[in-house]
Amino acid sequence: MITFSKLGKKGNLGNQLFQIASTIGFAEKFGHEYFFPDWNYSKYFKNWPPAFYKDESFEIVNEKEFNYYEWNLKKGNYDIDGWLQSEKYFNVEKTKKLFQFESFSQDLYAKYSFLFSKKTILVSVRRGDFVRHPHYYQLSYLFYFKSIIENFPDWRDRNIVFTSDDISYCKYHFSFLKNVFFLEDLTPINQLVLGAKCDDFIISNSTFSWWIAWLGEKEKSKIIRPIKIFQGEFAERNNDSDYFPDRWFSFDDSSFGIEKKYFTLYIRGFLYEFLIDIRFFYHKSKKRIKVLIKQLFRGLK
Questions:
Q1: In the chain, where are the structural domains located?
Q2: Which domain of life is it from (predicted)?
Q3: Which of 17, 53, 72, 99 has the fewest CB atoms within 10 Å of its CB?
């Protein structure tokens, strides 16, 4: 028997989908049954198994490396703990079947049918705690824009759909596009459902972006992804070579220039990033100054 008892308590939706898919993959590979605790998102998937609990002891098995490696789970009861972020752990057929959306998805498709009046490019932008984070590879607005114009020659004839945890950022940089749509005021599961309906994908280095592309991938889909997910010393300690499937296209935006006709976009973007930098360093400095003042007053007592 195999389970993942921390489901719902270790990361957000994208992380949780990895944990589920990999746990099922282990169960299939080693001939075990599997079960999961109650999960907040289970009602959105029509093939989700009922939760149940075995009154047995489980050996906790922790992930040893970020990259894919061979596990030995042949005999016994196991409670897996880790991030498990590689398609190589999956049983793809069973995962695709498990993550089929419930009937609510049809209502969403009907409500947002205007998005799909043409072929679509889904652009998934991650901001939030990734911005200026020392561990995560930083993607600017230029990565997404260059990904569109360099990889999709017919992009002007498509509907370009943005989803993000910072949609105002996307609007600031991309509202000038005449064929752009922004998914707003939607829950993560609704963003996942609509995003996966699209034809092609440009994704960030977040797990949520990864799953939109993976669930939405069709026979002729093109998926554009960053060159890596981590940076710095953290990248040296965590090998991310198995994170993205080999069939997805790695895109290094630094290898491409930007046409003069998009100069205004470039200047606006530069100023935006400059202001973000000022705010970031101001808040860091403010905290440091407060600490120094406290230390100073302690020394005077």
A1: 2-100, 106-257, 269-301
A2: Bacteria
A3: 72
Number of other residues whose CB lies within 10 A of the CB of residue 24: 22
Residues near 153 by Cβ (< 8 Å), separated by ≥ 6?
none
pLDDT at 301: 43
Q: Which helix or strand (DSSP H or E) is residue 208 part of? A: helix 207-216
Strands of 180-182's sheet, edge to edge?
180-182, 159-164, 120-125, 200-202, 223-225, 249-250
d(CA 133, CA 174): 23
Distance CA 258, CA 280 (A): 27
Average pLDDT for residues 237-251, to the nearest whole number? 98
- Is 60 exceeded by the pLDDT of residue 282? no
CATH topology of domain 106-257: Rossmann fold (3.40.50)
Over residues 62-76, the mean pLDDT reads 96
Percentage of the chain with pLDDT > 90?
Answer: 78
